[in-house]
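User: Could you write out the 3D structure of this protein bound to 2-deoxy-2-amino glucitol-6-phosphate? I've included everything you need below.
Assistant: Certainly. Input first, then the structure.
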Amino acid sequence: MCGIVGYVGLKEKKEILLDGLKELEYRGYDSAGIAVIENKKLSNFKAVGKLENLALKTKNYLSSGFGVAIGHTRWATHGKPTELNAHPHLGEKSFVVHNGIIENYQELKRKLQGSGVTFVSQTDTETIVHLFEYYQKQNMQPFEAFEKTVDELEGAYATLLISEVEPDTIFFAKNGSPMLVGFDDKDIYFASSDTPIIGKAKEVYYLNDGEYGYAKDGNIKLYDKNGEKTFTKQPLSKDKFTAQKDGYRFFMEKEIYEQSRVMSETMMGRINGNSIHFEELDQEFLNGIDSIKICACGTSYHSALASSYLFERLARIPCVVEIASEFRYKEPLLDKNTLFITISQSGETADTLEALKMAKRAGLKSLSICNVDNSSIVRESDKTILTRAGIEKGVASTKAFATQTMVLWMLSIYMAIHRKTISQDVLTGEINAMIHTPKALLVNDELHTKIHRLSKRYLHGHGFFFIGRDIFYPLALEGALKLKEISYLHAEGYPAGEMKHGPIALADSHLFTVALMPRTMHYEKIKSNVEELSARDATILAISPMPFDLADDFIQTRYDSHPMLEFFEMMVITQILALEISIRLGNDVDMPRNLAKSVTVE
Ligand code: AGP
C-alpha cells in the first residue's frame, strides 16, 4: 500500500527519497513520485509503474545544499494509476503526499472549485494542497493555514506538505495512518514505517493519531487539539532489514524455507518445561474472561479460524472469529468478559485496526498477535504477543501465517492451563508436538523437486478446490488464497464434508481438488469425501501420510503423530505448490498484480 518518505537537511535528497521508497516497495504500489524544494525552487518528478521508472526520470537531477523533500509510492484508490494521480500533488506553490483516505474530499473539493480552484487529478489527496493554499491566500501564516486544513480533514491520513512560501519547512499530520519522525543531528526524516530511515536516523518519534506540526531548523514542533506538546524520542534500531534473497528466486521462496528457523524463535522462552509462558501476559489479564472473539483479514483470518478449534477443544472457551471488515459494520454485541484478539502481520491493516478500536470503546480487554512491533495495532492493544517471524517481504504471506498459528496454538494451551481444562498427558503431547514443529517445516530438495514436476499439470483447468476438515479447513482456505494471489487461477477452500451440498456439481476432470487428508484428524471421513469427488472424475491431488489409490497425484507427508505437525507439513506443501505454479505461469511471485502488502485503506 502507499508509502511516504520525507527529509529536511543538507544531504542529497533524491537518493534519500528513492532509497527510502525502495524499502517500502514490498508493500505494493503502482506509481511513485518525489518533490524537492531547494534554493526556494520546486522540482517534481513522477512515474507510473516501478521505482526504476522514477529513477530513470530523475537520472540527471541532483539536489545538493539545504532543502526539503517528500516522496511517495501510490497504490491507487481514488483514480487510476496515472502520472496525474501519482503523488506529490501540486497546488500553485506547494506539494503534498498522503496515505489513507480523506472521506469528505468531495465536499471540500466542491467548496474549493466554487472559489475558482482547478483540480487536475481524480484523487482525494489533491484537496489537501488546495485547501492549504486557499487558507494561505486568506492572509494566514503557512502553519496556521496548515492547521486549519488539517482541522477540516475527515478520515484517515498521514500527510506531508512542502511549500515555496516556507521553503525550509515540512508540515506534517497523522490520523489513522502510520507516520514517524527520525532524527540525526540536524537532519529530520519522515516515513510511514521505520525501514526507510534505519541506518539514517538515530532516534525516532512515532506520531500518534491527531498529532500534527512542522519540521524546521533540525527539530519539530508538535501539536494536537490541546495545543503544543512535548514528546520523547526513542533510539531507532540499527539493524537494516535489507533482507536479500540469499540465493532464492523470490522472497516468498526464501520465506517458505525460513519457516523452520523462525518457528524456533517464535517458541523461544515461551515453552517452559511442561508449560507455556508468555512474559507479555499475566494471569490477572485473563481473569473474568469467559469467551474470545478474534478479528482479522485474509491470511491472518485463516490462522484465527484454525485457532478457534484449538481454543474450544483444548481451553474449552467459546471462540468466535470474524472478518474485520464485516465486523465493523454489523453493530456487534460485545460483552466485557470477552477477550478481543486481533491478528495482523503488518499491524497496519485498517479494517483490523478499526475493529480493535471498536472493541476498546466497548470496554473489552484487547490482545494483538502481530509481527511488527510499534505498529498501529500493537500500540492500540492492551497486550501484544509478537510472532517474531522477521520482516516478510513477499506479498503472499507464508512465515507470518505459520508463526501466527504457532502463537495461537501456544495461547490455547496457556489458557487451557489457566482454566484447568487440560490433563497432564494431553499437555505433554502438545508441548512435544510443538518442539517438533521446526522439523515438520523443513523443505527438502526431493519434496520441492516433486512439487515442481507435478505443478505442470495444474496450470489450466476450470478451478481448484482445496478441501479439508477441522483445522485443515482453514488450512484449505489458506492454500486456496495463496494459489489465487500469485497464480491468478481460481481457487476455493471448502470444508470437505460440505462439497456434496453444492460444489460437487462442478466436478469433472478439469476440476482440480487438493485434498488435505491427515491421518490424525477424521481420516476416514475425508477419504469418503474425496472418493465422492473421484467418482465424478475430478482430478485429485492428495496430500497425506496414507497412500491413496484414487489420487491422480499424491504427495506423502511424514510427520503424522499430531494434527498440528500434519497441519504445518501440509501448509508448506500448499505454499510450494502455489509458488511453483506461479513461476511456471511467469508471474511476479513477490509482487502479484493488484495486491499490496499492507492494506491501510478499508
Ligand atoms: C496474505 O497472503 C495476504 N496478502 C493478505 O490476505 C493479508 O493476510 C491481509 O491483508 C491481512 O494483512 P495483515 O496480516 O497485515 O493484517
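The longest strand covers residues 166-175.
User: Perfect, thank you.
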